[in-house]
Prior knowledge:
- This protein is of the alpha/beta class.
- Helices cover 43% and strands 9% of the residues.
- The longest helix has 25 residues, at 192-216.
Amino acid sequence: MRLLLDTDDDRAVHRAACRWADAACGKITADPTPHTTSPAYLALDVLRAMGRLGFSREGAERMSTDPAWRAVTCWSLATDVREVIVLRAHRLTVERLSRLAAWRAETGIRLTLLAHTPQPADIRRLTEQLTAAQLTDVACVTGTAAVLDAIGPAVADRRTGPPPLDHVQPLPAVPRSSVAAFRAQCWRRQNGADFARTDAQYRAGYAAARTWFSRTLPPKPSPAGGSSDETGHPAEFTEPTAFDLRETEALRLFLSRLTVSSPSPEHTVARVRGAQAGLLTCAVLLNVPDDLNRRAGPGITTVPLTPHTVHTITTHLPNPLRAAAIAALLFTGTAAPVLAMTQITGVDATHIAIDRDARINIGAPPAPRHLYAIPPRARPLLAAALEFRRRTPRTAPAHGLFANCFGTAPRLQALIADAGLPVPALDHPHTDNDWHTAARGWHLHTPAPIAPQVLPRLGPVRP
């Protein structure tokens, strides 16, 4: 740990420490609130240095000392904070220094204390307090020039302000036909530019389905033994085989990954129809609900987690649990009561698994879990929430991850108000299961692909 002693109390030192910080690169400068010795306020000052300002809004949730410092630790681990400068170190109490020492021990950050100490008595008092807080491995730097050199250069191209607003080129209305006629009807009803955008989504779903099948579901042998006549067709008709439990869960997760980034239901329908066509070439029949546009779930009642959306969440919600809860509502598109069933053990780095049927139908045979893909930008939020919950006293692996985040209607409304983001799944409540949990798959046992592997071009593109 470094202790920088600004014995001249030079304003240039304070300015250099602030300009050195760049939260995006894991470097922050915390400026403790004056006229208070509360450890909770120091934790909120550190959160503010990370860019989490939601507690400053009137009526926002307040965190006490222990939860606030747990949030500091979890956000540091999730966002890879590596270097920290704390200003006004000569005013820190032993309790505050002990909190900083614990934070440093748990995260491995490089901690620098900057003390503006024109009087020798302040230096002696600070040294005694550091010893009392068990911060003994201290390297002292004295003098304005040496302190400025120890701080380092300012960030040259630091970005200020939120990311730009989201902009997506909308798709036109897509036909409600089945996979057999979907692409042809799009070509007939849409102009050249609209069809090109729709067909790009269709082809993306087609390619993703074939890749997923080759990596996850190798073709099964025909129940009839695989015998065929001289034409290559099965010797006798065999009924399609429904997906088993493992395959159904894998299918649900694939459909969620395919559509979680969809900016509109039209994009989702085009991707799903392409996936159906791609799986047909692998002798797999995928059935999805006919009323796909009216259902809920990934790509229908979800919001893509763009940089602007993630910035809004992390800025408005400094509590990791509440930030992860609102993010999960946005990228799953499911109802809050279903999401409230999420257990700590049901979340890993890439997906959320909710065993809803086991909670509702106790004693029934195992059923496929509800699986939701976690977008890459949401993974640090879920990682921070998991770490926060595990560090909470009296927490077991089977406990709910989002306990006390939804609960009663006032608590949910407070979460939505603090986040400041619309949640489509709440604006359009639904009673049916999410669409991807109602999808079903069958192995057709055909000896060869039943559709071309390369999509044909449907006539000339219109001007």
